Amino acid sequence: MTAKIDIRQLSVQFSGSSGTVNAIDRLSLSVAPGEFVAIVGPSGCGKSTLLRVIAGLVEAASGQVRIDGEPVSEPPPGVGFMFQRDTLLPWATVAANIRVGCELSTLAPADYARRVAELIELVKLNGFEAHYPGALSGGMRQRVSLARLLAYEPELYLMDEPFGALDYQTKIMMGRELLRIWESRKRSIVFVTHDIEEAVALADRVIVMSPRPGRIVQDYRIDLPRPREPRALRGNPEFSRLCGMIWADLAQASGETL
Ligand SMILES: Nc1ncnc2c1ncn2[C@@H]1O[C@H](COP(=O)(O)OP(=O)(O)OP(=O)(O)O)[C@@H](O)[C@H]1O
């Protein structure tokens, strides 16, 4: 079976006035079709850079990234992103921003309005349809970005701390929705987060990265039963064990003692 994402010996460097930064060093990773992979690691370890290389937005110094067997050289079709800083159109309303996702999807134009209304309901932005992004909080903008991504329904979701600006309850709710959609459609997801519990609750695998240069130090298979209810997992001993191990890896990667 062809991997959805196949990364071989990837290195990425950034050059600036203060010298060259080795952001990623000889990293190899394979993501199967339909797999949900979470990436955790200390700040600055190259998680966002890795997503950007997969998305064809940053060039590799060496190594190769393939999506569906094809080398990535520019943003590939069928890939949806959700970046840390939202990329909403400032001149378009909430509804119009979500509609952009529909336009990228295979949905018939006659169904756009219904889908936009469903997604606004899903991300709890009823009453804000006609607002512009500048009039929304960071968490609300993140929910619009999520709705736009869900409207697109790409084959591959690249999500960079998608729930980082949300309050705890909304974050749990959005995680549950993402799981529900993923479980019904089985698209591939690469999901960067700083939240270990979120990573273990959602993903099939949790990849732990070390700080500069970014490398993979652990690759955990999360065999917790599905469908999962993120909140109910909090009392599960296997869930706690996995979170504890990843916590220890991260502490070690950051050079901290527990
Ligand atoms: N465009 C760029 N130019 C120069 N250096 C960069 C650029 N983008 C990233 N870097 C550097 O590459 C390294 C990895 O950055 P990256 O944003 O990928 O880390 P991260 O793990 O996503 O961090 P965080 O968890 O804080 O979001 C950092 O040292 C960063 O300073």
UniProtKB/TrEMBL annotation:
Presence of keyword Transport: yes
Keyword vocabulary terms for this entry: ATP-binding, Nucleotide-binding, Transport
Domain of life: Bacteria
Domain ABC transporter, first and last residues per copy: 7-236
GO molecular function, one term: ATP hydrolysis activity
UniProt cross-references to InterPro entries, sorted A to Z: AAA+_ATPase, ABC_transporter-like_ATP-bd, ABC_transporter-like_CS, ABC_transporter_ATP-bind, P-loop_NTPase
Family, as annotated: Belongs to the ABC transporter superfamily. Drug exporter-2 (TC 3.A.1.117) family.
Protein name in UniProt: NitT/TauT family transport system ATP-binding protein
Origin species: Paramixta manurensis
Lineage summary: Bacteria, Pseudomonadati, Pseudomonadota, Gammaproteobacteria, Enterobacterales
